[in-house]
Design goal:
- The chain is an all-alpha fold and about 80 residues long.
- It has a single domain, classed as 5' to 3' exonuclease, C-terminal subdomain (DNA polymerase, domain 1, Orthogonal Bundle).
- Helices cover about 65% and strands about 0% of the residues.
- The chain contains 6 helices and no strands.
- Helix 4 crosses helix 5.
- It is elongated.
C-alpha cells in the first residue's frame, strides 16, 4: 500500500521530527551524553549541523554514529537534501 501526502504535510511532519529529543535516536549512552554536553538536544539541531562541524565537535566515531542513527530514524542531514 502506498500513501501519498502533500508537500505541506511532509514539511509539517519533518518539522515535528526535527523537534523530537535526541533520545529518540538509537545512540550509545556515551554519544548521547557527548552530544547533549555540546548542546545538541533535538534531532533538528543535528540535522542542521554540517558534517564537518559534527566531526570537529564529536570526533569521527560519534559523528558517524549520529549519522547512522539519523538514517535509521528515516532522516538525512539537511545538507544532503539541498544537493
Amino acid at each position: 500500500m502506498t500513501v501519498a501526502i502533500s508537500a505541506q504535510t511532509y514539511a509539517r511532519l519533518l518539522g515535528l521530527a526535527d523537534q523530537a529529543p535526541l533520545e529518540c535516536l538509537a545512540l550509545s549512552p556515551r554519544t548521547l551524553a557527548s552530544a547533549k554536553t555540546l548542546g545538541y538536544n533535538q534531532i533538528g539541531q543535528v540535522r542542521s549541523t554540517s558534517r564537518q562541524t559534527l566531526l570537529t565537535d564529536l570526533g569521527e566515531e560519534r559523528a558517524e554514529e549520529l549519522e547512522r542513527a539519523l538514517h535509521d530514524f528515516g532522516m538525512r542531514p539537511r545538507e544532503d537534501l539541498a544537493g
